Amino acid sequence: MFVKHCKVEVYLIELKLCENSDLDNIVTRHFSKADTIESIEKEMRNLFNIPGNKETRLWNKYMTNTFEQLTKPDNTVQDAGLYQGQVLVIEQKNADGTWPRQPQTKSSTATSRSYTSSGKSSSSTYSSSPSSSSSSSSTVTNGDSGGTYGLSSSSLGKGGYGSSYNSYSYRDPSSKPGLCGLSNLGNTCFMNSALQCLSNTPPLTEYFLTDDYKDEINRDNPLGMKGEIATAYAELIRQIWSGEHSYTAPRMFKTQVGRFAPQFSGYQQQDSQELLAFLLDGLHEDLNRVKKKPYLELKDANGRPDSVVATEAWDNHLRRNNSIIVDIFHGLFKSTLVCPECSKVSVTFDPFCYLTLPLPMKKDRTMEVFLVRTDPQCKPTQYRLIVPKMGTVSDLCSALSKLSGVPAENMVVTDVYNHRFHKIFQTDEMLNHIMERDDLFVYEVKSPRGTDSEWLTLPICFRERRFRQSSAAGTILFGQPLLISVPRQKLTADMLYNVILERIQRYIRTPLPEEYSCLSSETAACNGSNGIYDDEEMDHQEENEERDESPEESNGQSDDSVDENSEGCSPCNKMPKKAQDFRKRLFCFSLVNSYATSDVGSMPAEGSFLKLTSYSTVAIDWDTEAKKLYYDDQEAEAFDKHESMMQLQKKKMTVALRDCIQLFTKTEVLGEHDPWYCPNCRKHQRATKKFDLWSLPKILVVHLKRFSYNRYWRDKLDAVVEFPIRNLNMSEFVCDPTAGPYVYDLVAVSNHYGGMGGGHYTAYAKNQETQQWYYFDDSSVSPASEDQIVTKAAYVLFYQRQDGGSYKASSPAASLGSPPTEDDLGEQDRQQDLDCMDTN
Q: Which residue of 236, 291, 459, 707 has the smallest Cβ count within 10 Å?
C-alpha cells in the first residue's frame, strides 16, 4: 500500500540570475524546490532575450571567479543543492562553436598517498579565459600561482543518486591528506565540525578509503537510505583524504542529508551532535549486514547472572544490527530499576552509540540589583545576591532582605530599560526570566505586596518637554523612574506634587521665592494647565482682591494688557499675581501609557481627587530651562555600593570528565511524569534508576550535555570540563568483571562557541598520518597544540581505544561473544520456532 503525503511549499527559493557577458546585471526570481534546471534555463533565456537557436549552459557562481557547471537538466533545485541567494550564470556559445569558458587540462596529478583509495578518476580544472583545448566540461581558475580552483568529479556507480558527485574545491599542491577544510554553505558549520571529527576517526576512515563499504551496502533495508548516505559520505571522505584540496564544499553531501532528514535541509543553525547522531544511524542502516531483521522478544533478567543477560542482549542486538558502525561505535549499558514498594529489581542491557554525560549544574546564581529606599535622603544601593538558579522573585527579595533589613514583603522588583519600567515582576515569577544584562531595581514601598491596603504603588517617569514654535510638544525620557506610595483615596494633584517633590529632594534644588519669576513663560504654560496652588491661600487672596480692586482692573493692569502679555496662557495670567506665584511649579503631570510615549488622559481640575489605579503611570514633565537650573543629573545617578559588591566573585566552575561520568552513573529517582510500570505491583511507580557501563566500543563518543532544557529553564552550561588527551582509563566505570582494560586517547573534539540562540562550531582533530593536532574552522585548517584543546567550548569528544586502531580488529564487545553468522542466525530462528510449537 502506497501512502501519498501532500506538502505545501510556503517559501520559494530566491535565486540570482545573470548572463555571462554582464555579471553585474542580476535579476532575482523565485523557484520551487521541485523546479528543474531545465525550467530555470528556459526562464533565463526569456529574461535575457536569448534566441532559440543559441546553445546555452548554466553555471553555479560561488565566488568572484569560481563557477561550477550544472550538467543535469532534469535535476530539481533540491537535487542540485541550490540554496537561497545562489547566483546562476547562463552562458551562450560563441559563433565559432567555442564557449567563453574553455577547459584547461591539468598537466599533473596528485601523488598517491596512504588513506587514498585506488582507482580514483583523474580531475580536470578549467580556466575562465578562452582556450583552444577541448573538453566535455569546464570550470575556472583564479589565476593565483599558489593553487587552482576547480571541480572534482567521480562516478558513484549504480548505488548513487543519479549524477556524478560534483563539489567545488580549491586545489593546492601543498595540501596533505585529511587537512582539507569544508566550506560553510550558510550556517553549516555544525555539519563541518561533525564531519571533521568523523573524518579523523581512523577505523571508520580506513574502512571507506579501502572501498570495503561497497560490498556491504544494503539497498533493500527499509530503515536505510538505499545506500545513498553511505555513498555520499564515502565520496566526501575520498576528497578530504586525497591530498589534493585545501578545502572543498560538501554541497552534494548536505543535499543528500537534507533529503532523508528534512530538519537539515535548510540553512539554519543546527546541533552538531544531532547531525552526528543522524549520520551514524544512517550509515549503520545503509551498511547493515542483516538483510532480514528477525522479530525478537525482550526478556527480563529474572535473577539470572548479569553476564548471561548481557551476552543475550548483545547477541539479540547483532541479530538485527550488524555493521561497521556497530563494530566501532556501539557499547552496552546496564540499567537497574528498583521498585520502592515491593523492591522488585529489573535489570536490562541496552546498546548505545554515544555517551551523553550531564554536567554538574550550579544550584545558585549571582545577581546584582539596586535597592531604592523610601527614605529620600538615601541613595540607591547596589547589592550582589546569591539566589537559587531555579528560584522565584520572592527568593530574590528574601536574599536582599537579609542584607538590607528591608522586609521582603515591602519590595517590588522591576526591570528598568531606557529610563522606564520595562517590566514589574510578580513574586511568583521564575528568576530564569531575568537575564544577566537586565538592570534590576528593587523599590521599597509602604504597603506589603498583594494586600488590599489604603496605599497605591504608582510608577513615575521623568520626561523633558521641548517646546517648538508650532507649540507642539516633544518629550524625551531621562533619569531613573520611581515607584512611590500614594493614598488610594482622596488624592489631589497638590498632594501628589508634594509626595514626588519630597522623594526627589536629594537631587532637586527648590527655587527661592524671588526665583519663581525666573521660570520661563513656557514653564508657566506647562504648570498653568495642571499646576498646583494652596486652596485656602487662593481663597483668601481672591477675597482681598475683590475688596480692594475694581472689576475693570487687576493689579493695575487692564484685561487687555494681560491678554497681550499672556503668550497663550490666559488661565494662568487671569489669576491674581500672588496666586500665579503659587501655581508656578518645577514640573507638571501627565497620565501616560506604560512606555511614557503618549498621554492617555488629562489631570482633573484643581481641588478634584485623582482617580488612579494600579495600572496608571504618571510622567513628570520638565521644561528644559527648569531642568537645567534645578535638576542635578549627577546626583540623581549617584549610588552606593554594599559590601557584598566588594567580595570577589568565584571563578568559573571547572569539573573533571570523571565527575560527569559519576553523575551519569548516580542512582536517581524517576520523575513524577515518567514513572516505571512495576510488573509485581501492577502499577506505575517512581522507582530508583541507575545506569552502569557494561562494555565500551573502540571509538567512544562522549557528548557533553551543555544545553539544558526544562519547563522553566533554557541555558548553556559553559563550565570548563577537564578531559585527558591521553590515557583516559574507563575501566573503573565498567561493571563487567571480566572486561579487559579500557584505555583511550583523544582523537577529535567538536567545539561550540556562543549561547542558546546560535553560535559557531569548529573542531580539533589529530591527523592520523602526521600525528599532529589541527584546528578546523570551516574552510580554514591550521596547526594546533594540545594545550589549546581543553576549553569551555568542548562539546563532543572522540576517544579511540588504544587497542582499537583498525576496523578489522576484534569486536568492541568481544567479551560478549563473536557476532553470529548467517547460519547461526538461521539455526537460532529455527530453534525458536521449535520452542514455540505445541508438542502435545
A: 291
Nearest to 804 by CA among 697, 702, 695, 693: 697
Find cell 545506569 and name the residue: 691
What's the CA gap between 774 and 696, in Å, rounded?
27
Between CA 188 and CA 271 the distance in angstroms is 10
Does residue 617 sit in helix, strand or coil? strand
Q: Look at residue 450 in the predicted model and tell me its pLDDT.
A: 56
pLDDT (0 to 100) of residue 525: 45
**How do 699-705 and 355-358 pair as beta strands?**
parallel
Q: What sign does the CA torsion over 126, 128, 129, 132 have?
A: positive
760 is catalytic: yes
For residue 745, which of 762, 727, 759 has the smallest C-alpha distance? 727
Q: Which domain holds residue 453?
A: 365-494+588-643
Strand 683-685 relative to strand 707-709: parallel, antiparallel, unpaired? unpaired
Residue 486 domain-assigned? yes
Kindly give the interhelix angle for 272-286 and 189-199, rounded to the nearest 10 degrees. Answer: 50
Choosing from 419, 422, 642, 760, the catalytic residue is 760
Domain match, 778 and 798 both: yes
387 and 251: one domain?
no
Spot the catalytic one: 180, 189, 572, 660. Answer: 189
Domain boundary among 580, 609, 643: 643
Q: What's the number of CA atoms in the CB half-sphere (13 Å) around residue 633? A: 9
Tell me the C-alpha to C-alpha distance, in Å, between residue 26 and each of 17, 29, 47, 186, 496. 5, 10, 11, 21, 64
Q: Give CA–CA dist 351/334, Å, rounded.
A: 9
Judge whether 721 and 660 are in contact, CB under 8 Å.
yes
Shared-domain flag, residues 257 and 150: yes
Those residues whose C-beta lies under 8 Å from the C-beta of residue 10, and which sit 6 or more positions away, are none
Report how far residue 810's alpha carbon sits from residue 820's, in angstroms, rounded to the nearest whole number.
Answer: 14
For this structure, is 339 an active site residue?
no
**Residue 135: helix, strand or coil by DSSP?**
coil
Q: Is-contact 397 442, C-beta < 8 A?
A: yes
Element (H, E) at 649: none
Write the single-letter amino acid at 770. Answer: T
Q: Which of 117, 130, 290, 266 is nearest to 206 (CA)?
A: 117
How far CA 176 is from CA of 169, 418, 678, 688, 770, in Å, comes to: 14, 55, 58, 52, 9
Q: Which three cell numbers stand for residue 170?
A: 580549491
Q: If we measure between CA atoms, which residue out of 161, 340, 331 comes closest to residue 234?
A: 161
Pairing of strands 773-777, 720-722: unpaired
Whether residues 665 and 624 share a domain: the answer is: no
Verify that 689 and 637 share a domain, yes or no.
no
CATH number at residue 63: 3.10.20.90
Round to whole Å and give the CA distance between 413 and 74: 63
For 64, 418, 596, 619, 621, the CA distances from 476, given in Å and listed in that order, are 48, 10, 9, 11, 9
Mean pLDDT by 10 residues, the chain (840 residues): 66 91 91 93 93 90 70 84 85 90 44 35 32 35 34 35 43 80 88 96 94 92 90 94 89 88 81 93 93 83 88 92 94 92 90 92 86 92 91 93 93 92 90 86 80 79 70 74 87 86 86 60 46 39 42 38 35 38 68 82 73 84 87 90 83 82 92 87 91 94 83 70 94 87 94 83 94 94 94 95 69 49 49 41
Which CA distances in Å does 118 have to 155, 205, 207, 564?
14, 14, 13, 103
Sheet with 668-669: list strands edge to edge: 345-352, 331-338, 688-695, 668-669
How many distinct structural domains can be found in the chain?
3
Distances (CA, A) of 205 to 233, 237, 358, 802: 10, 7, 29, 17
CA atoms within 13 A on the CB side of 333: 16
Predicted confidence at residue 171, as pLDDT, reads 61
pTM of the model: 0.62
β-partners of residue 746 are 799
